[in-house]
Design brief:
The chain is an alpha+beta fold. It has one domain: Beta Barrel (Elongation Factor Tu (Ef-tu), domain 3). The chain is 18% helix and 30% strand. The protein has 3 helices and 6 strands; from the N terminus they run ββββββααα. The structure holds adenosine-5'-diphosphate and magnesium ion. Magnesium ion (MG) binds next to loops.
Amino acid sequence: PPYPIKMKGKVIQGFGRGSKELGIPTANLPEAATNALCEDVETGIYYGWAQVGDDSSVYPMVMSLGWNPYYKNEKKSAEVHIMHVFPEDFYGVELRVIVLGYIRPERDYDSIDALIQDINIDIKVAHLSLARPSYITFKSDPFFTNET
Ligand code: ADP
Ligand code: MG
């Protein structure tokens, strides 16, 4: 797909799969937010930058793109884990993300530990990739700085 991909939407309630309990909360974007994606974009794990509400801070993120069971798996849904500790939840707040690359396809896991291990690798990959100067420039992209 043509990067960067810019997505935004107000954070919705997820399926309560307990991501937060695992220490990896994922902010779910509304279905319409995936309109920025071309139809054939692969499911899997992506990385990029994220911004919550009108806070000027931009943080690294990993995004899982998968089939949405709520829409009988006809639509894709995006869940964003931001690598930052927030003082409180931000349901209903506008989340903006710039997706810059793909990490891997989705996998089935035998155990929660294996899942967490993979996510921690994803997070390392994201940090390393985003350290490139050409990717750092996207932190100050007008998408994050303009009030629109
Ligand atoms: P849900 O199933 O409702 O998505 P989660 O357990 O995945 O529940 O938690 C997601 C929520 O946690 C987000 O909607 C957001 O309000 C909050 N949250 C707090 N910190 C983060 C973070 N670092 N990244 C993503 N979401 C976070
Ligand atoms: Mg979630």
